[in-house]
Amino acid sequence: MNITDLSGTVQLSNGVQMPYFGLGVFKTNEGKEVTDAVTYALDAGYRHIDTAAIYKNEEGVGQAIAASKTDRKEIFLTSKVWNADQGYDQTLKAYDASLEKLKTDYLDLYLVHWPVKGKYKETWRALEQLYADGRVKAIGVSNFLQHHLEDLLQSAKVIPMVNQLEFHPRLVQQSLLDFCQQHHVQYEAWSPLMQGKIFDIPELKALAAKYGVSVAQLVLRWDLQKGVVTIPKSIRQDRIISNAEIFNFEISTGDVAAIDKLDKGERVGPDPDTFDF
User: How far is Cα 82 from Cα 79, in angstroms, rounded to an integer?
Assistant: First the structure.
């Protein structure tokens, strides 16, 4: 990943340029809260917005994008098919529903939200059809561990272009990251700030002080240096702006390794193997 500035991108396996830094809107309320957050982000130079059907805020995201001075074609927009809508026909319907709520005629990236046993292969087949029909620019998965990916790849005609996973200094999953990189699947982080828990880690506080940055800025920069696309969530304009101020410093190789060593296999979200679907 060539890290330049907030407008920088990483090239997916199909040639699509995906901004490596964006705004996530998980747990951002529908209405003014989400429209304000997306507006703040776009005004600050963000060009990547990540939502999902289950977040129940696609309409607000769509309203903010429609009202923005930023052209839709310049915005990389992601949504995800929820578990209850998985299966071939249901996924196609879910995609149409997301487009209608977002007030757009295409998505830049559509993801299978969780690997629902017995369904995710048919769901993936639907995504492949949407992709073949030119209705979505790129397709991928979310929360797929290595064994899920290996199973999917046995029948997939298209290799997922992205795998979005919980990723932060307490959950590095280096072997999974390596597997994705070997198969040209772009790794993407959700909850990169551990829903606020990273601010309690002493080693991160010390390293942030060393670089003269905030703990959030340190961790988000670490994401990018690990080759991981990141989409921190915030509803505050000042934090949306400060989260993106990570392009005027570089973490040393030794300090990247030191952050890697903070891994404890600790999750703030569900485990894909035990999540109650």
Answer: 10
- Token pair recorded at residue 277: 């679907």
Render the burial of 110-144: b for 16+ CB within 10 Å, e for the rest.
bbbbbbbeebbbbbbbbbebbbeeebbbbbbbbbb
DSSP string, 11-73: E-TTS-EEESB-EE-TTPPTTHHHHHHHHHHHHHT--EEE--GGGT-HHHHHHHHHHSSS-GG
Euclidean distance between CA atoms 200 and 235, whole angstroms: 21
| Tally of structural domains, the chain | 1
Alpha helices in the chain (DSSP H): 32-44, 58-67, 88-102, 120-132, 146-153, 174-182, 202-211, 215-225, 237-243, 253-260
Active-site position among 46, 55, 110, 187: 55
Is 40 assigned a catalytic role?
A: no
Which residue is listed with tokens 């026909």?
Answer: 89
pTM of model > 0.70 = yes
Cβ–Cβ under 8 Å, residues 78 and 108: yes
Q: Bridge partners of 143?
A: none
Locus of tokens 């309409």: 59
Q: Which amino acid, 133? A: D
- CATH code for the domain of 246: 3.20.20.100
What pLDDT digit, counting tens, does each position of 123-179 carry? Answer: 999 999 999 999 999 999 999 999 999 999 999 999 999 999 999 999 999 999 999
For 44-55, write each residue's pLDDT tens digit.
999 999 999 999
Q: Which domain holds residue 46?
A: 13-260
